[in-house]
Amino acid sequence: MAYPPDLKNLIKLVEKTRAKRIEQAKQGIDFPKTTLEEQEEIVRKFHPDYKEDGKRALAVGPNKGQRIAHEFADILEAYSRIDPDKFDLSRTDYTCDVLVIGGGGGGTAAALMAQEAGANVLIATKLRHGDANTIMAEGGIQAATKPDKDSPYYHYLDVVGGGHFKNDPELVRTLVTEAPYVISWLEKLGTMFSKFPDGRLQTLHGGGTSRKRMHSAGDITGCEIMRVIRDEARNRDRITVLEFSPAIELLISDKGFCCGAILYNLETEEYLVVRARAVVLATGGCGRLHVRGFMTTNHYGATADGIALAYRAGVPLRFMYSVQYHPTGAVFPEQAEGILITEKFRGAGSHLLNIRGEQFVFERGPRDVTSSAIIRECEERRLGVPTPTGRVGVWLDSPMLEVLHGEGFVEKEFPGKHILFERFNINISKEPMLIYPTLHYQNGGIAINKDATTTIPGLFAAGEVTGGVHGENRLMGNSLLDILVFGRIAGKNVAAFAAELEDTGKPTLDHVQKYHRELEEAQIPRSKISPQILPDYISDKVKRRRLHPSILERI
Amino acid sequence: MAEAKPEFDEHKKLTSDEVEVTEELVPIYVMGQRYDVPASLTIQKALEYAGYFLIRSCGCRAGICGACSTVYRLPGSYRVEIGLACQTVVVPHMHISQIPFFPAIKAKYDIEELKPEADVLAQVYPEIYKCMGCNTCTRSCPMDIPVMEYMSAAIRGDIERCAELSFNCIMCGLCAARCPAENVQYNVGILARRLTARYLTPQARHVQEMLELVENGAFDECLDELQKAGEPELRKLYSSREVEPVEADEFWKPTDRHCLAALGATDD
Predict the structure, then answer these.
(1) What is this structure's pTM?
(2) Are the beta carbons of A199 and B203 separated by less than 8 Å?
(3) Domain at A5-30+327-438, CATH from 3.40.605.10, 3.40.50.1970, 3.90.700.10, 3.30.1330.10
(4) pLDDT at residue B267 above 70?
(5) Residues in A touching B89 (Cβ below 8 Å)
């Protein structure tokens, strides 16, 4: 979609200031940098993590009193989709040794390892098997695999440096020492990593790495990994997959073991009871909660369901105050919304501009500072550029690079983005891009130990649903690694646990009843229900005309 | 339709609140039913705008998962066009239907037991010989993959070529849905890729060397040191760590050998 006339008019304002800006850039004059104190101030005032009005103290549960984003609090301070007093647990629809909740990379890795250890596995997933953030990871997977220059020691240092030194040391140690095993495992399964002719793996730097240890499969690393492990799961007997069947409650036995879950068939709208000897929670991230209204790079099902389920059962959460935003996500055209626009544009000299075509921030500062300045320009100063879908953004002046570095520079240096925008009839060599910070990753999640166990026996967890390994900030390439390291550990351990357990005991929903009482005491209205399952993007115009709420709300 | 607006004044000091950006609505037909939707929307968002709550036919919303395969026809044309709903912008008067699932055959195999011989793809999927070279698969691929070419490679027994050409496949199923020979191209592709990576590409020796080192506890003491270190100590180690230069080549070696394998240990 080309820019509509209203936006083309606004681009004239960018063009009007361009000659003077380029002249200054050529003289090496940047927009004035701010002092460290000013930077800290702007981050404190405008970075979403620090916005106190965007948070509230949790009214219930193990983390009661801790301040987290409203969107997270909303799914935690909420009632079950079922009535725990009336729900019939005498019926069993599926029986298995191991129930894996979530069919992304973490869940699939867990299923493969559990099956290998002899377990009968059922994977229950919300969308299709493999519809997950895993498949969207482009950049790569970190691992210290080159002994002549790298070791888990340096990987460890990079991980904790990125996480503001707040990471859980045991989890980090596990992540970095298991990393080469993951690469070896993937290689044996037949993952087409980018290699030199002699088989040596190609590795690159990522933000915050001290060694080039980013392994990739072209620029579709996550997609390749997911394709391979999903294919492997489909080849194995004793792995059954239930698609379009998200879990909406865990079952906890009278002996205190996690012994199954209640699933919800999204198409028939039936509830299904799964009895298992043990459970792995691998439900992934939260982008579709749109924390503070941010757009997201995440897939359609990323609604943090697992956090709500585990919390209700009494599992504590960690680092939930910390969410990762990338400063430059596309806001126009809408089909590119949320897509990352690489930092390389600013590195090459592109300016960030407000609706008047004026610079407002030094473009090559730290990510959190740049994100905060963009948010300030749009929110406080009201100088953002509105889009047809009701969003707001600032210009990233790519055409000026053609003047700074010569004609053809943008297409040569940014072929992927050039083609992407060309499909929408936007030539980024001639027209600027509209960008805004985009919600990328949930740093926090449920607490796990290095063996992927939780506070509930029989409940294991892996991947983005957990918190601790990345501290307050994850490095690029460590999420694909995280899901596979802890997914594999969860799979091995859950199978051993299931094999040894004599009797899980009788399944109950006592934890839900207890949680409901707590919610009532906190006077949480009955209309609050979670997990959310899917975001609702139906236009308000249609909703106002409806006789009934949408299918998922019709409970 | 938008009403006439006052002329755009480029000298005015604007704020966001003074500008309204609007766009026209265009008609599309969803399984025959007309809806008027904003002209800039993708098919996916147009469906949501029109009031559809998507359960199937929606995944990553970014063009890589293959959930939203869509067929459509444009006015005045007999041709069936294809696209991913999340990546395809609506065209006025287009007729749309989605293909959320296709009942394709997937062979079960043990990758460890297959041999990367020329006829292995045909052994697992004998129907590849039914290919009549019509090229409908290539024309149906939203990723612009030369599907028929990689199927030809599969028939010739060129596993590596099949793998290489099919690498960008997102397994959306449109090729199989339209194939008159009833092939499942994308499952042939992934088998070829797995065989190529497993058997026809040298395995990375340095990974196995690193595993041996880890197995033998070569880094245990170093990691103990880090695990016990307090934040000030970690900060110091972090900021003083040697960083591999971006322009360094593959055989760069750090001068600080702390917590690294002894040099030479991994050479021939």
Answers:
(1) 0.91
(2) yes
(3) 3.90.700.10
(4) no
(5) 1, 333, 335, 424
